[in-house]
Amino acid sequence: MTFSPELEARFEKFLAKYPADRKRSAVIPMLVYAQDETEAITQELIEEVAKRCGVTQLQVDEVVGFYSMLHKKPQGKFHVQICTNISCLLVGGAELWEQACKKTGIGHKQNSADGRISLEEVECIGACSWAPAVQVNYDFYHFVTPGQLDKLLDGLAAGKKPEEITDVKKVSC
Amino acid sequence: MADLVKFTINGQELEAPAGMLLIEAAKQNGIEIPSFCYYEGYSLQAACRMCLVEVERMPKMQVACTLPVSAGMVVRTETDQVNAARKSTLEFLLTNHPLDCPVCDKGGECELQDMVFRYGAGESRYTETKIHVDEQQWSPVVFYDAPRCILCFRCVRACDEGMGVSALGVINRGAMSLIAPNKGDHLECDECGQCIDICPVGALTSGAYRYQTRPWEMEHVGTICTHCSDGCKTTLGVRNDEIVRGNNRDRSGVNGEFLCIKGRYGFDFSEHADRLQSPMIRVNGKLEEVSWSKALETISKKFAEVKAKGGKFGVIGSNQTTNEENYYLQKFARQGLGTNNIDHHRTGDVVTLVDALSGTTGRLAKSVDFYEGKAVLVIGADLAVEHPFLAFQIRANFRHHEAHVYAVTAETVREDLVATRSVRAIRGEELSALEGLREALAAEKDLVIVFGDSIKGDKVRSLVEYGQSLGIPVSYCALVDYSNSRGAIDMGLVPELNPGFHASNVAGATIDELLAANDLAALWVIGSNPLEKAKVAASKAFVVVQDLFLTETAQRADVVLPSASAYEKNGTVTNGCGEVQRLKRASATMGTKTDLEIIGLIAKEMGLAALMGPWLPETVYAEIRKNVKGYDIPLPLVTIGAQQTAPVNGRVGVDSRPDLIRSSHDNLFTSGTLGRYSTVLNSVIEGRQSR
Ligand code: SF4
Ligand code: SF4
Ligand code: SF4
Ligand code: FES
Ligand code: FES
Fold this sequence. Notes:
The structure holds two protein chains of two kinds.
Chain A: H1 5-17, H2 27-38, H3 43-53, H4 57-66, E1 78-83, H5 86-90, H6 93-104, E2 110-111, E3 117-122, E4 134-136, E5 139-141, H7 146-157
Parallel strand pairs in A: 1-3
Antiparallel strand pairs in A: 1-4, 2-3, 4-5
Helix pairs in contact in A: 1-2, 2-3, 3-4, 6-7
Chain B: E1 4-9, E2 12-17, H1 22-28, E3 52-55, E4 62-63, E5 74-76, H2 80-94, H3 111-119, E6 136-137, E7 142-144, H4 154-162, E8 168-171, E9 178-181, H5 194-198, E10 204-206, E11 219-224, E12 233-239, E13 242-247, H6 261-264, E14 280-283, E15 286-289, H7 292-308, E16 312-316, H8 323-337, E17 342-343, H9 350-356, H10 369-372, E18 375-379, H11 383-386, H12 388-401, E19 404-409, E20 419-424, H13 438-442, E21 447-451, H14 458-469, E22 474-478, H15 485-490, E23 497-498, E24 502-503, H16 511-516, E25 520-526, E26 542-547, H17 552-555, E27 559-562, E28 571-574, E29 579-583, H18 595-605, H19 609-612, H20 617-627, H21 635-640, E30 643-644, H22 672-675, H23 679-683, H24 685-690
Parallel strand pairs in B: 1-5, 16-17, 16-25, 18-19, 18-21, 19-20, 21-22, 25-26, 26-27
Antiparallel strand pairs in B: 1-2, 3-4, 3-5, 6-7, 7-10, 8-9, 11-12, 12-13, 14-15, 14-27, 23-24, 28-29, 29-30
């Protein structure tokens, strides 16, 4: 399996970072970055990572099944993750989630028909201090109000990129 | 040994080596801390929380399975808090448990049942619908019933660490976690059943045993596996004279709880539909069933006739019959029939090894040395495939003691995974690779050298010379193929040796010579299949065959006698390390007799009963003790556990005939002719692939 030169370079860096007999440590970062390029974790990717890290396919599969941010099904171009864990729940996270479902017509781990948006109800994303929090791909939105969520979802549905939706402020990490 | 530390459990002042796990330290002092995921000998998991105990000055309860004891530690294992924790853990484990104990194979010997019985959680607060996952069959051997699984991961570790196969994993997470096989929907592995055996509940079950019986309806008979020469003890579960299970949960025998597919499930040949159940005589070119008396009469008449005429006899013994049968057979051949034409299929050069080690003692490796030795050198053998138990010992030695493993083999072998150094060398040329290892090996504290049949004759001598030149204690093991291959040599089933490695100094023909001799008058084959790939040149030879099945050899016979299998007789066998162990009768097949009895009956019919003495295993064993060097071990001792014989008695002084030594290189899924009649060995895909 071949990847883009950038990703190949990244892989090389990972593998060089760990001791020769600990190549398995590179399994998670490889999967995370590879799935962005391949859109989902395919069987072929699992085999490739297993080979490169010197572990069995089953061992890679164990990792894929365990970590919720690794996904075997392609997600929407913008993966909208809404936290409904305790801190967010207390300040309206669950309502945001329901609002998002209603507005997009899709549910947990589902994709919109045009493939632009997918939704996921997530556990704590480590942004409790700024609850309720929403994450789109790798970017965060803090203190999200129902109005802001509407604008965000409308913008994404209309084909805009998050940075083009200027009235909802994102926090890059 | 680490320093002892003092600590208390439940007010009792106790001692244990510093660093010992609390759960072990407690056990050693007779205090049980319940556990599921903890399993002696495998890596720590701390997944089940069953072992929680109170430890003073620690804020929360601690898991005893990962906590090392330290000086002054104050532990309480029976407080209200601890009991409540145990109960909650069990209630939690039962939330999604199907509680189908009435039909579960494990019912009656299930650790979960026992714990709930003892610690409670009789009521459940869980009212949601249980998650159901259908039962999966992963191979003819392994079945998985996910709802019963308590996710202790013992199976995963047993396969990964114990077997070195890593065929099992855990997929998904939390309540959705499942054990998964390596090939998506099925397993490709050793099919050893270790995972099934170690499962505390009925989540993993075996094709052989599932839904066969309730455990308390079985009798348990401890005997020795009849397949390879590693000599594992297997405890056969017998119901109504039928063997339904093999395992070794009581960990007695050299092998602890280890068994490969052959020892655990390969007992099924014994109940194969093709078992011979009546003697047969060739009438008008066809074998016809006759009574025992008619068959014995025919044989003894013919034998007496050949003997009277001074005709040529040939006797071919077995790699699987007992020491008693072998001893009795060679005695009958030599003293009764007056022939020294006696041989068996030779599979390893033990004779030259014994000779090369003359003048030394304690240089023959024991099974335990593979686990306790500081270093092991494997030469020309694919141990994981051909000697699964020895390979298991080596892996355990590596895990527990960081033993140094060296492998000098033609192909990659599983031992490479744990090897300090692996060297590839052409089969037969392995010794030339040893100089390169000299420095490393000489630096070891001690060494076990195990070698296959590519090292024979003078190569064995060179190897021993090399070993002795290292300047460290070295012990050796010459691999042989089957459960009593070693006993066949020890009991003198070769023309050049009488029992106990005494040169016979009488001329005698070997198998190859017997089969090729045009003047052979009578051939008597016991539990062996020399005609699988050869022919008897003497077309007029009278052939008598004792076997379980109508093998190629039996098909050529003039008289066929149905014999009992190893699981149907008493006696002793000697494993590849020279350890004598006891066979115990587990079941019976109608119409058969043990080879010992058959030999005795033929002798009696010929009027030689007085010469031969009674055909009782104990009586013959007593004679072996008297006459066979190294075998003077009281039977009760052999009954308790394996006892190594000490055959070294100066120079053996015969030609070991390396040209006749050929291992069959049976793998995990073959076992000579016997293997053809094992349904399980033939049903697993790995077996078909490897053939
Ligand atoms: S049968 Fe043996 S090799 Fe196969 S999965 Fe179970 S433990 Fe592993
Ligand atoms: S299958 Fe058995 S041994 Fe394996 S995790 Fe489940 S309960 Fe434990
Ligand atoms: S390792 Fe050998 S003796 Fe042990 S169970 Fe397997 S075949 Fe039998
Ligand atoms: S609970 Fe939502 S970010 Fe922590
Ligand atoms: S036995 Fe200690 S956590 Fe399972």
